[in-house]
Amino acid sequence: MNSKVQCVQLNDGHFIPVLGFGTAGSEEVPKSVYLESTKLAIDAGFRHIDCADVYKNEEEVGLAIQSKIVEGTVRREEIFFTTKLWCTSHCPELVRSCLERSLKKLHLDYVDLYLVHFPIALKPGEDDFPLDENGKLIFDTVDLCTTWQAMEKCKDAGLAKSIGVSNFNRRQLEMILNKPGLKYKPVCNQVECHLYLNQSKLLDFCKSKDIVLVAYGALGTQRYKPVVDQNSPFLLDEPVLEDMAKKYNRTPALISLRYLLQRGVVVLVKSFRENRIKENMKVFEFQLTSEDMKILDSLNRNLRYIDTFVGHPNYPFADEY
């Protein structure tokens, strides 16, 4: 990993860059946009790229990485690449084949980090969101510990250097940590985390277990209509944030990102625009005072923008954290 890139060490000894480029998007976004924006991100200095099987853009993101390797802009070992196991592949016998399918699309031999995307199992098959005749999601029941055992085998096979989870609550993390015969702890838990949902209790728990908390939706998410309440407030319009941005002569987005970084959170940020991609790298150029950190702490209102899979037995967001 490039020495200029700020990293934190994971509990398995590998290092993760503290700022990552997110590649989630909606169906309306042309695939070519993911290719171009990922190239721009690498050019701007991003070395941590976050993707997922369900984003349906692994080929484009992989192509962007390959093109930058061929150009000589980066070497493979300088890129920290994450992808995720989707909910329809939780059955232990499907886990490795799902990762191998991703690797084939990405034209990579391994991923740096492989995550269980949600603690939710859906009916296996071709549909990412299998529906019954009434249009309701078809849930499946799979023991998360057996899924985790299959993840451990992917690490042993060298297909993933590190393994972790996403959208897990404390109880679900403890289930994995207390699993008899546990070989590898999750290195991280990737969750929605921002000024309005600062995850302080989950962050403290993760730190106590040497698990890194990775934040998605760090700027308040991009308000995808199927999953985000369109009446929810725009985080970047928060007056306290706007005042602080003026004080530091930075954008509200940079203040938001800096706040998370100073709490020891690894932050994913996403943009398709070149100027914003470059702007986000400036988060390392300044620091917030402890007084201002406390002011920003007070903005927490436990507001979750992305709330899916309500009604599933493993629905993670009913617990306090």
Provide a short characterization of the protein structure.
This protein has 321 residues and is α/β, with parallel strands linked by helices.
Distance between the termini: 33 Å
Which ranges are low-confidence, i.e. pLDDT below 50, for 5 or more consecutive residues? none
Largest sheet: 8 strands, parallel, barrel
State the strand order across the main sheet. Answer: 3-4-5-6-7-8-9-10
Shape: globular
Spell out the helices and strands N to C: EEEHEHEHEHEHEHEHHEHH
**Broad structural category:** alpha/beta
The whole-number mean of residue pLDDT values reads: 95
Q: Helix count, per DSSP?
A: 10
> Beta-sheet strand percentage?
5-15%
